[in-house]
Write a structure and sequence with these properties.
By secondary structure, this protein is an alpha/beta fold. The N terminus is likely disordered. It has a domain of 189 residues: 3-Layer(aba) Sandwich (Rossmann fold). The strands form two sheets. It has a seven-stranded mixed beta sheet with strand order 4-3-2-5-7-9-8, with helices on both faces. It has a two-stranded parallel sheet with strand order 1-6. It contains eleven helices and nine strands.
């Protein structure tokens, strides 16, 4: 008996007592979604679907891995980071979701182990069922490395000894790519395509919050600053005409008809497509309704 007590005492003192490491356990039946982009305004690319998830009762978190402190022609980096954090917060407010920005510098994001741990922490704390992120083939290094970081974190979110201070996920989420037009090393292939005609204005309202980008930096960078209207109302109308085209449904007509039926699928003007990355839980015909309850 004395020997047993001595052993137990030693285990407690060394912190090696036998325990099951904590898992992330959901306390509700809601769908948990995390949308990860490189810069404030990148997650808005799927703002229509994010709004549909939120309306369906899902817990949605939008995240920018950088603070966006390089994307402006006149504002200093410190000021710009504050401006863009507030713009992102307001964009999330438009559709009733949380929208946060991390403190990594814009243009300097790298696929390091430390940054991978940041992503693992975010996915675990969100108790994610679905992770949305860019493919790692983009023109911008921050976009590419965001994709790589999420892919590198995909399996690790379930490994207890990696970042043990944050409870691990019992089930690996579905990891879905957002749309891009790059064809090397392979083109984007949609596995699901969400019609957003009914919420396209909400999506544009989100972009409208990013004043420093939509009306200042991006037009300047493209040599189109003189095309931006001065008035608030006129700007919003201009943005709607130019940015709604980014959600054009035509390239995805076949899959829209397949999933929505010929009558509805033929009429969709705007959509947001997603591709199964092949990591984590796979998207199937059997579970698609679970992950996209409005589909």
């Amino acid at each position: 008996m004395k020997i047993l007590k001595s052993i137990l005492s030693g285990l407690l003192l060394t912190g090696t007592c036998v325990m099951v490491q904590a898992q992330q356990v959901k306390t509700d039946n809601r769908l948990h979604v995390i949308i990860i982009g490189a810069h404030p305004d990148d997650p808005d690319e799927v703002g229509g679907t994010a709004y549909k998830w939120a309306q369906a009762g899902a817990d949605v978190l939008m995240v920018s891995l950088t603070n966006g402190d390089a994307g402006h022609q006149t504002l200093d980096s410190e000021t710009l980071a504050k401006v863009r954090r507030e713009e992102a917060r307001r964009a999330g407010e438009v559709i009733g979701v949380r929208y946060i920005t991390l403190d990594n510098h814009d243009g300097q994001l790298m696929p390091t182990y430390e940054n991978r741990l940041q992503v693992i922490k975010l996915i675990r704390e969100q108790k994610a069922d679905i992770v949305i992120f860019p493919r790692p083939y983009d023109y911008h290094p921050d976009h590419r490395y965001t994709g790589q970081l999420v892919l590198d974190a995909a399996y690790m979110v379930t490994v207890p000894k990696i970042l043990p201070e944050v409870p691990f996920l019992e089930k690996n989420p579905v990891f879905l790519y957002t749309y891009d037009q790059f064809v090397h090393p392979e083109p984007f292939k949609a596995d699901v395509c969400v019609a957003i005609d009914d919420v396209i204005e909400k999506k544009i309202d989100m972009y409208h919050q990013h004043t420093s980008q939509m009306y200042e930096w991006l037009p300047f960078n493209r040599g189109e600053l003189d095309q931006v209207p001065k008035g608030e109302k006129e700007r919003r109308e201009w943005l709607g005409k130019t940015w709604a085209k980014r959600s054009n449904a035509e390239p995805f007509r076949d899959i829209l008809i397949e999933h929505y039926g010929k009558e509805k699928g033929s009429k969709v003007k705007y959509c947001e497509p997603f591709q199964d990355s092949g990591y984590g839980t796979r998207l199937t015909k059997e579970n698609i309704k679970k992950y996209f309850p409005f589909y």
